[in-house]
Amino acid sequence: MVLKPIDFKVADVYADWCPGCGDFGIMNGVQMAFAELGLEPHQIVMVSGIGCSGKEPHNVKCFGVHTLHGRALPFAMGIKAANPALEVVAIGGDGDGLGIGAGHFVNAGRRDLDMTYIIHNNGVYGLTKGQASPTLRRDEKTKALPRPNINEPVNPIGLALISGFTFAARSYAYDVRHLKDTIKQAVQHKGMAFVECLQPCPTYNDITTKDWYAGEDRKDAQGKPQSRLYKLDEIGWDPVVKDWNEDFKKKMAALEKTQEWGDRIPIGVFYKNELEPTFQERYSKRVPFYLTNPPAKQKLVDDNGNSNVDLKQFLDELKTS
Amino acid sequence: MVLKPIDFKVADVYADWCPGCGDFGIMNGVQMAFAELGLEPHQIVMVSGIGCSGKEPHNVKCFGVHTLHGRALPFAMGIKAANPALEVVAIGGDGDGLGIGAGHFVNAGRRDLDMTYIIHNNGVYGLTKGQASPTLRRDEKTKALPRPNINEPVNPIGLALISGFTFAARSYAYDVRHLKDTIKQAVQHKGMAFVECLQPCPTYNDITTKDWYAGEDRKDAQGKPQSRLYKLDEIGWDPVVKDWNEDFKKKMAALEKTQEWGDRIPIGVFYKNELEPTFQERYSKRVPFYLTNPPAKQKLVDDNGNSNVDLKQFLDELKTS
Amino acid sequence: MVIKSINWMAGGPQGSGVDTASNVFGRACGYGGLYVFGRREYHSNIKGLHSYFHQRISTQPLLANVNDVNLLAAFDAETVVRHMNEVVAEGGIIVDSAQLNTKVLDIPTLPPEFKTEIGKFMKENALGETVNDWLEYSKKRDVHVFPVPYMALLIQIGKKLGVEQISKITRMINVLTIGISFSLLKYDRALGEKAVLDTFSEKGKIADMNALAFNHAYDYATETFKDNFKHRLEKISITEERIFLTGNQAVAMGKVLGGCRVQTYYPITPAADESEYLEAHEILKTSGGDEAILVIQTEDEIAAINSASGAALTGARAATSTSGPGFSLMVEGLSWAGNSEVPVVITYYQRGAPATGLPTRHGQADLRFVMHAGHGEFPRIILASGDIKECFYDAAKVFNLAEKYQVPVIHLLDKAMANCSQTFPVFDYANFKIDRGSILTEKDLEGKEYRRFQFTETGISPRVMLGTKNGVHWYTGDEHNEEGHISEEPSNRKMMMEKRMKKLELVEKEVPIEDKLGFYGDQKAESVVLSWGSPKGAIIEAINLLQEEGLRLGFVQIRMIIPFPTGEIKRVLEGKKRVIDIEHNYNGQLGQVVKEQTGVTPNFHILKYTGRPMTTTEVYDALKLVLTDQAAERQVLMFGS
Amino acid sequence: MVIKSINWMAGGPQGSGVDTASNVFGRACGYGGLYVFGRREYHSNIKGLHSYFHQRISTQPLLANVNDVNLLAAFDAETVVRHMNEVVAEGGIIVDSAQLNTKVLDIPTLPPEFKTEIGKFMKENALGETVNDWLEYSKKRDVHVFPVPYMALLIQIGKKLGVEQISKITRMINVLTIGISFSLLKYDRALGEKAVLDTFSEKGKIADMNALAFNHAYDYATETFKDNFKHRLEKISITEERIFLTGNQAVAMGKVLGGCRVQTYYPITPAADESEYLEAHEILKTSGGDEAILVIQTEDEIAAINSASGAALTGARAATSTSGPGFSLMVEGLSWAGNSEVPVVITYYQRGAPATGLPTRHGQADLRFVMHAGHGEFPRIILASGDIKECFYDAAKVFNLAEKYQVPVIHLLDKAMANCSQTFPVFDYANFKIDRGSILTEKDLEGKEYRRFQFTETGISPRVMLGTKNGVHWYTGDEHNEEGHISEEPSNRKMMMEKRMKKLELVEKEVPIEDKLGFYGDQKAESVVLSWGSPKGAIIEAINLLQEEGLRLGFVQIRMIIPFPTGEIKRVLEGKKRVIDIEHNYNGQLGQVVKEQTGVTPNFHILKYTGRPMTTTEVYDALKLVLTDQAAERQVLMFGS
Lengths: 321, 321, 641, 641
Ligand SMILES: Cc1ncc(C[n+]2csc(CCOP(=O)(O)OP(=O)(O)O)c2C)c(N)n1
Ligand SMILES: Cc1ncc(C[n+]2csc(CCOP(=O)(O)OP(=O)(O)O)c2C)c(N)n1
Ligand code: SF4
Ligand code: SF4
Ligand SMILES: [Mg+2]
Ligand SMILES: [Mg+2]
Known about the structure:
The complex is a heterotetramer, with two copies of chain A and two copies of chain C.
Chain A: H1 22-36, E1 44-48, E2 63-66, H2 72-82, E3 87-93, H3 94-100, H4 102-111, E4 116-121, E5 124-125, E6 131-132, H5 156-163, E7 167-172, H6 176-188, E8 193-198, H7 210-214, E9 229-231, E10 240-241, H8 247-258, E11 265-273, H9 279-286, E12 309-310, H10 312-318
Parallel strand pairs in A: 1-2, 1-3, 3-4, 4-8, 7-8, 9-11, 10-11
Antiparallel strand pairs in A: 5-6, 7-11
Helix pairs in contact in A: 1-6, 3-4, 4-5
Chain C: E1 6-13, H1 18-31, E2 35-42, E3 50-58, E4 69-74, H2 77-83, E5 87-96, H3 112-124, H4 131-140, E6 144-148, H5 150-161, H6 166-170, H7 173-184, H8 189-199, H9 205-224, E7 242-246, H10 247-257, E8 260-265, H11 272-280, E9 283-286, E10 291-292, E11 294-297, H12 301-313, E12 317-323, H13 324-339, E13 344-350, H14 367-372, E14 381-384, H15 388-405, E15 409-414, H16 415-419, E16 421-425, H17 442-445, E17 474-476, H18 490-510, H19 513-516, E18 517-521, E19 527-531, H20 536-548, E20 554-558, E21 560-562, H21 566-573, E22 578-583, H22 589-598, E23 604-608, H23 616-627, E24 634-637
Parallel strand pairs in C: 1-4, 4-5, 5-6, 8-11, 8-12, 12-13, 13-15, 14-15, 19-20, 19-22, 22-23, 23-24
Antiparallel strand pairs in C: 1-3, 2-3, 2-16, 7-16, 9-10, 14-21, 18-20
Helix pairs in contact in C: 1-7, 1-8, 5-9, 7-9, 8-9, 10-11, 10-15, 12-13, 20-23
The structure holds thiamine diphosphate (TPP) (2 copies), iron/sulfur cluster (2 copies) and magnesium ion (2 copies).
């Protein structure tokens, strides 16, 4: 049975984002990606944090785990580690993932579980009414701020690269096609994949708006807006690390690309390395049956309803007589 | 009165690190640096997390705030922000700062308070008996580990650079002179300074030992050990960003330097940028008297013991009659 | 004394201006010398889901909200569906005539569980499927329906203004309904206009646009609705100065007054408004030199509490402000503050819980949690305010308590208080004393050896601020000796535990009784109500109503939770026939505490945990059942959508 | 029945092999058919600060520790200073003769507050300043002193071994003192040697070196100390199989038995040993296929609890293990698990608190905290084990409770239990049943519509694991409807709250009484002791001793804290003349809970909060004072350095 994006919609849940919110685009991108990947709803777990973005799983028909603010990754890690057969996609806001959740972000990179993390970068804390998120640039004053933002922004892709994510990409909420393709690649990537999704928040972010990304403020002679976004594909960017020798170089190049902002903003896959063994691979070396009989699937019990464990291995060490 | 390192010693506190622990070296380096900087004990606040390293403030005569595991930076931030005249030096373990405290680390960079943070990188959780810390390399199995480390290591200086620290350096616990100089530079630096201090833990880390750093395993023809450490100074490294144009380049170069490990390990200042306005400077733009009359020094009270605040500015907005 | 009031409600999608409308409405009433009590309800959502604001208006001071609605301004169809039955006989509903044919079950924002509910209601009452069918049902209950063609009116207004952009005019639906409302209520048009202009005063031309819309709608209604809607709002003339404010604002002002100079926070509903309000007013007017409150948005609540503690050590009065999820993350930091005797203040706004819970709704289910939060035993002071005025004074007082006794202080509030808005005579604060406790300066210390945690009679050791010359000392989260160095010695441990804990005895002794509890109603009555926090107003109003009917009742409001005023409460409760516990939680938490502390077991519980605050109406009804021996031991209140 | 025992203690700097020595000593005794109860004390330090291990040995099963020391093996001067007075008359002290001239106040590791204490002691007793002077004082109390030239002996041993490196031989001080000890106690040398060899069996040559050192010292002592040290350790012959283990190990084994397959943790004392032990034994032997426990060291405790919850949703039985500071960080996650009905297990080892507190010391001050931790109200089960055997079985049972009732379960332990070591007959576990509660599979779900939080009679909704075909569903930390989608509807909220909370009534009904409380001693006595957790053993032993003197006493050990077995406890306590609360905390927390729940107020408290566990000796003394009407209402115990 080949599923369509519509099969991933949830009938009786009203998607309560503001009109024009980029989250609609992201939701569509996710649903399309799942369909095109040939996945069925029960094979996928979407894990989210708290924020406008955090509500997304309720609008996608697959297992949804809407967790706590900043904690999507720890939950996702537990799910994936306990049942590596599941396709786990964690998502969340920029405040969620890079403010309160930054510690998990950094440490998730080191672990390299084979899953995907999508951050909705809208520059604000949407659901709490527009405070500065960690991606907002210094001195910028979005609508709801009483004072201009006093902090420097974090560089999400840069942070992912330094933290050991083996896939780092950026896409845009309103380029649903590109977003869908990017998410597909992230899910298919073997290893911990990060997607930064630029997401206009028409309600609170009056700086990096849809119009701004589209370049409505800079029209060419014909009056055509000059989009600020361009695709890495189009400049022949090759993000794939084919052997370890080129790894650092490619990482640095990707990092340099993240410096572009303002008039030209690249989207696409910045970096990809599948040479690195995943957590699953690392752990399987110790426990060879991990993938075939992961924790979630173990029997625990014998035919009489008793625990199937033989404690002899423990007891022998402890015996004094 | 010019103070000596000994004036920063604490008489009746026994420094309870293991014999040969690198923490002794770091303590000495800190005390020497304070003395040479011409500081007096009451001008300094040392803030630490929890770990072997976290005990350090008890052995240094200045204000000591030994906080919670992973929380040295938030405490330090509150202290420095409330009284910017204080010299605030935060210190802690690698588990403390890069495991449980990683989220604060990343976000401290963005804030760029003018203070110093020293991480004791010993590759292990010392005080809890030798588990892998976030800097331990993958597949390494130090003494106390039941299984080899399953995670990739974090790159402390790399993380500092990406997070916006404006000074990043590395030194070594047993090169007290170098360490002292490095700490001095960090304290003098205008902005958020990071020092990674390589610290052998003779009790639990049997991989990156003192002997290993000293190159006892690789002697030259004369039988002289070839130290793995070399000084950036000696190769004419110029970490200082003199104008914004060269900032990214210098950052990348520093990052590239962090890739060196194994046979040649650089120590010294990797990167330094004082062009970036500090939190203090940023905030002073809004509150011009911040540095002269910071929160810690405000009077609160009038001569009659009443609150000195006139609420008129609030009330006027709220009045209906 | 029954407080007569006119009750107006505006409802519509979040983001459609319900709040602004209500603010305008409330201010206009305030300008007319009237008292206002506003209750605000909204989803955890930015735009689209249902929100509403209930404004109760009276010539008398108001302490709480009621169930009744006299005039409902429905911005959309959902508002009709949700609130129609709250409108009393002879009340009115202003409705968009374009919505009359909307099928109720087609409203996209209704969740399935609510549809099931209304489906049942429709069936039981043989209601048709459109909004109009519903309104017909209302009309049978003698409710006036005022259909208004919102869009047509707005287009007229747009034409007058020369504005064509639809989005710009539709934003004015809110002001339009106020125009209609004030016309129906025959309220002074000029006051309405002034409220509109003042509310939008910082938005330039928008103010004028809205004023025009208001007037246009006022005229339209005056011309159109000639039927005799009997409710009236009349201005009166007063001389005293009054303010109209929310709980959040009261707390913010109280903090500034109390000397708070560092506020850390991580955004969370319903606490964040306080911090943003403070940041917007950061530079303070003082009788002395330049002062300002430094507001820091931290990366999480762990950083918030610990930065605040850090700041407190330097001598700045420091606070952080949060609600349940955030406080959960602060627990370890609280434990450190308790152990290190840090005078840090935590302003805690309870909301619907557990977990993310009902983030924008009300609750009082965190009492036991704050009492015991943190591993180990350490002293803390907990003050629970019961209304906006207490919010203000308590927010200032907590800093004195924190510094005097060198303990973390939790100021316990809730969503109902934070978000309600009320008129008050201007708060009197001229004589608010600042008591910083025992502090040693550079001079005091000269030639002395200072020990931060010196054992003393009272358990209080003189403080020295970080940075003070001659006063170098240490803090640690480990158990420590008098110097502040780690100590694992058993006898030192025992003395340190006792030093810290006995400070609470001093607090107990020194804090005046009126700060510990409030007593209302009839002290001698054989029944007494026990409560804390925001139910206060509704209880007092209900007691007064019952009193009129000859049903006598006392009410003890517990304001200081730790140290618990055990003796006083025992005295008040013992020997009573009925002890009635009223709270917004499931377990009757205060009742449990009272039982544990005093041995007195409340024999009636009136509880509510729907996320909506109790109204006077509900409390009155429930208490009446108790007093007339018709009540179950446990009544669970349900009013409010 | 007085349990006769020989009490041996080894003391020295942390890192000098005190633990290993004690393990060897205990094993050797175990090999001789003797029972062992070991108490371990150490600083939060890796090397250098004082640590000691008290091994109580008997032919009878032992439940607790005692004050007395019959033979003290002092590795260093500090051990003499700290423990000399614990050695009973006719007991002995093995001391390094090189330390005899050490000046006590020069010992660098003594903190100033302890020096003040001993200064006072020296003055009062006119003691000289050297270790020798101190020992002279002991001798006056009839204590034998056995000075041994540690270094000289070690050098002889080194020579025999051909090892010159000083550091390699000094490491054997510990084994040396065991040789001396066993010789003095006339214990079977072969068993000692076997224990040495077994303990070092994985270290190759080192085992032999140590065996030689042991024998050398044994011989030395046999030749040197001819004075008649009267204490004897004699092996007996037994047939049953016994194990010698710590609380940490018992918990780990129990978990595996109970089906735990994911354990997350962040290192913390005294919990981490359990996780490391599990990781070292990760591949399990089962009667079925391949199974293993996945142990994950997370970046912090927040990740630990939330990863464990995530794992639990997939169907893996999952747990996390921590102590106070870590649990403080888990509070928000706990609240989520409660709200989402996640069967996650938290193993909580209490230690000295607040904050970092006394990280390696004992405490029971987190009872109220775990009961109320988390904002809002949600069901949780709390089980508190009282000894190592209960640790084992409870660690398995908690997973059944968690899955059956779909609630987070807290298994409450403490440092005293975690770190004590004891001999037991091998645990019987063959019939341990696994009860996974109500789970639906792909097949069950075919063609059906699944709702994760379906309202049911009991409040329990059948579970479906993430990944199950036909069973897609949602979780959220917000309040939710039956599907698991966010819902802010008041009536849904009410039903969901009640659905969740009423599960506790079911637990209360279904859990057998013996899992809720233990009753010991004389049920009919007019006095009853109330306690929980690790004091159990000391209380039972003390009661037995008092019984022998004709002082009758009952003891109720509360094992299930939530849901609280109110009815049962009330029945046991009501009408008693004396209700004596015994706990390791300041406030008498269990006493408070009992008062709140049952209305019965304990009238005596025996409390200890020095970070050291109660001994039978202490409890006996304190209870005797109570029973003979000589006790204050509150006795605070102080034994132990
Ligand atoms: C522990 C905790 N702190 C604070 C909050 C309040 N909160 C809810 S959403 C949110 C921020 C949302 O911002 P972001 O993560 O950027 O998501 P967005 O709404 O922009 O999609 C916050 C702080 C919370 N739910 N939990
Ligand atoms: C919240 C919390 N979790 C865990 C601990 C236990 N703990 C004490 S020290 C430590 C780690 C120390 O490692 P590191 O930070 O690297 O410092 P080091 O001892 O190596 O200097 C841990 C996990 C704690 N004190 N608090
Ligand atoms: S506030 Fe912003 S992010 Fe949130 S739903 Fe509205 S537009 Fe989207
Ligand atoms: S364990 Fe390691 S880090 Fe800690 S004191 Fe010993 S040597 Fe130093
Ligand atoms: Mg955001
Ligand atoms: Mg470390």
